[in-house]
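Notebook entry, structure prediction.
Reason for the run: the old model in the group folder had no record of what sequence produced it. Starting over properly, with the input documented here first.
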Amino acid sequence: MEGGPASRDKLRQVADEAAERGIISVQMVVLELAVRMGDTTAVRPLYDAAAVNQSVLGGILSHLAWGVLAKDPARLRSASDDAVAARYFLIAADSLALAVSLLEAQGSGQRARQFRAVLSERVSRLEGITLYPQDGCGNVADLTQRERVIATLILEGHSNKDAAEILSISVRTVEGHLYRIFAKLGISHREDLTPLHLGMRDE
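New structure, fully documented this time:
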């Protein structure tokens, strides 16, 4: 879980080994982690594994993967709704964030804003949730340039509203970026963010 291509490759190796041993539930969860870490080549194998898994999680992940493959925001929204009902809040937020990105790419600004409002509420459920304990900081290299800017503003003590005004974006967009930043760095609260997370010296 250190991030970067090496970690994604390792996850794919674990997923392949699980498949060889017929442990589909493990393969499915590992592939989902690979997708979350940015491995787009894991989406099709995730769908294939989840589609044959009869669990609630399998159904949710198959909808999520198919929504990505079909570039279908409505299916991703449905997967998010199902994930909320099953209390898989991180998957719910991930799925809806993907839907927002697709809508924006498709030029559906109004629907993207509607979905973003729901995403903001779902991201708020993640406060305090951490998937795995981490001994060190997440990998700053995994942050996009915009995420680094927003993380720096938050580190400097700016509120979400301040950051939105400085960058001329909506508060909900800032919240969506913060969700991604927290997930990539392995933290749960804005108070957990330190200069070390951004590769700075903590002076």
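Summary: The chain has ten helices and no strands.
The old model has been moved to the deprecated folder.
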